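Quick one, tokens below. Sequence please?
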């Protein structure tokens, strides 16, 4: 029986957007739940610590461990959900300016594999940079040797300063400092991979489950990475 799997939504995204992915995994007999976030749950974290999100992730993990009598889970982090998961794994106090007390979940022993889908593991964008700098400085690359890191990137849109490429160009520029590069339309490949991880590139996938066309969790792209959950 595969380990229980938890889906961690992306920035400003709600759990309902991942229902199709959750159902696809359940059909493969992978016990799966999505952290029950609503879009408004993210609002207090804009430019601030993501502590409330990590707390909800921890509650979901504990529930799945208990429900399935398991010792470990697998995590799927979409977009920001990937670096939120890396904070959750960590053993360093997570404290940002304005916080009175720090939090530390030390969950790396509870997680067998972390799969990140279109996660920007670096950023130059002011709203997320502080959190990502914390992760990069404390847990660089595939930091915990006991955890299997699988980082999935999309090669779909080349960022260009012309119609059809502007959004991707600006997003890539704010993320990795280079706009003229490949990515999924939001996250460039250069930011979606980690040193020491098993790094994959899937052509033709869009960044978000709400994007038109296929995304990382659609049935065909899913075949490229679901093996890591089985």
């Amino acid at each position: 029986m595969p380990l229980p799997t938890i889906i961690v939504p992306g920035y400003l995204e709600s759990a309902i957007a991942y229902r199709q992915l959750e159902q696809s995994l359940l059909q493969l007999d992978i016990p799966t739940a999505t952290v029950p976030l609503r879009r408004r749950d993210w609002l207090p974290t804009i430019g601030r610590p993501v502590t409330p999100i990590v707390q909800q992730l921890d509650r979901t993990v504990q529930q799945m461990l208990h429900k399935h009598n398991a010792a470990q889970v697998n995590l799927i982090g979409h977009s920001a959900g990937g670096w939120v998961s890396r904070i959750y794994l960590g053993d360093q106090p997570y404290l940002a300016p304005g916080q009175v007390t720090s939090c530390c979940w030390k969950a790396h022993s509870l997680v067998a594999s972390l799969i990140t889908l279109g996660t920007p593991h670096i950023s130059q964008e002011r709203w997320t940079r502080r959190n990502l700098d914390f992760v990069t400085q404390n847990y660089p690359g595939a930091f915990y040797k006991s955890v299997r890191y699988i980082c999935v990137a999309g090669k779909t849109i080349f960022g260009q300063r012309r119609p059809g490429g502007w959004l991707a160009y600006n997003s890539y520029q704010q993320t990795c400092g280079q706009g003229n590069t490949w990515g999924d339309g939001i996250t460039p490949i250069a930011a979606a991979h980690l040193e020491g991880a098993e790094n994959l590139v899937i052509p033709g996938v869009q960044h978000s489950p709400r994007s038109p066309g296929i995304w990382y969790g659609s049935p065909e792209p899913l075949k490229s990475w679901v093996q890591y959950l089985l």
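Helices lie at 19-27, 51-67, 80-89, 129-138, 166-176, 189-192, 219-225. The beta strands are 5-8, 32-34, 73-78, 111-117, 148-155, 157-158, 182-183, 198-203.
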